[in-house]
Amino acid sequence: MTLYHSLLGSPFFQRIGLFKCSILLIISCLLWVTPVFADDEEDSGVEKQQIYHIYNDVDLIPTTQLRYSKPKIVIKSIFPVLTSEEQSENVEKFNQLVQSIIQEEIADYKKRSADLLPSRNNLPKSVSANESTLDIDFDSSIVNTNGNPIISIRFSVEGYIAGMAHPYHHHRVLNFDLENGQPLELNDIFKSDSAYLNVLAHFSNTALSKRFKELGDAVAKGTAPVLQNYKNWNVNPSGLLITFDEYQVAPYYYGTQTVLIPYSQLNDLVAPYSPLGTCLKHKNQCLRSNLLTGGFMEEASNAARGASDPALS
């Protein structure tokens, strides 16, 4: 009897179903054959793989992939994969959008590396011998897990190319309406005639100005009511989370800044029939039925305790 058929006959895989079993086997094989450094065991075993149940037969599986390239480039990406017992088009669309983001970041990193290659040839060997790395990870927030889930993903990107003074960091987001199989933009959740950007800007500017009293001009520019400043937004059980990348509102050494805007500040602006509007009509049921992973768990915990974490001001 083959390993595949043995696994299919096990009680675990009988419970999760044939299609999901096949997906798990494929992902497990990818992880098993992925090369790792001799002293790095982080991704060497599938037993550490965690499965998050989202809704009905849909699960989220954090998946790790390693890539190696020349000269001395190591790319590690951790990204969400949705699985379903049925071959859902919406699940597949989400996975395709995730892969598009990952591939775009890898392509951008390789271009940066190629652009710096001439200058790297003049570096001392002690510097040029360093590895260049790209690390992609994610946090996820899923609300309304009892109904029509909104899946909100924030990708964190850190890139370093040998010879750089320091790594660069930025974020990408994917907000996805699982019921309709569509990515969500800010314009999709607010009323068309609302001045929602002004409200986001006022709240963010007030919070960040308290944090950085000496950086008034930088904060004002980075929080101005233009869509580009609010491209990194996530649906959170406690409110709308805005992420400001390094340099956007403060110098590099202050790092990423986040502002959590409570839904009480946005109720009059949210489109009533948008996925978020529908959720807010049944706030207790919708927002309490949630799933958080990664850094979003700690942020939500701090918010619940009323902690004076500047990232949640």
How would you characterize this protein structure?
- The chain has 313 residues and is of the alpha+beta class.
- It has 2 domains: 1-184, 2-Layer Sandwich (Heat Shock Protein 90), CATH 3.30.565; 193-313, Actin, Chain A, domain 4, CATH 3.90.640.
- The protein contains 11 helices and 11 strands.
- It has helices spanning 3-8, 11-16, 18-33, 89-120, 125-128, 186-189, 196-211, 216-222, 275-281, 283-288, 295-305, and strands spanning 52-55, 58-69, 73-84, 132-143, 150-160, 168-177, 182-183, 233-236, 239-244, 257-262, 290-293.
- Strand 2 and strand 3 form a beta hairpin.
- It is globular, with a radius of gyration of 21 Å.
- The N and C termini lie far apart (59 Å).
- Residues 1-8, 10-16, 24-47 and 307-313 have low confidence and may be disordered.
Please state the overall shape, judged from the principal axes of the Cα atoms: globular
Per CATH, the class of the largest domain reads: Alpha Beta
- Structural class, by secondary structure, is alpha+beta
Q: What fold name stands as the CATH topology of the largest domain? A: Heat Shock Protein 90
The parts where pLDDT drops under 50 for at least 5 residues are 1-8, 10-16, 24-47, 307-313
Mean pLDDT: 82
β-strand percent reads: 25-35%
CATH superfamily of the largest domain: Fervidobacterium nodosum Rt17-B1 like
DSSP, total strands? 11
Q: What share of residues is helical?
A: 25-40%
For the largest beta-sheet, the strand count, sense and barrel status come to: 8 strands, mixed
Count the domains.
Answer: 2
Helix and strand string, N-terminal first? HHHEEEHHEEEEHHHEEEHHEH
N-to-C span: 59 Å
- Quickly give the CATH architecture of the largest domain: 2-Layer Sandwich
Count of DSSP-assigned helices: 11
Radius of gyration computed on alpha carbons = 21 Å
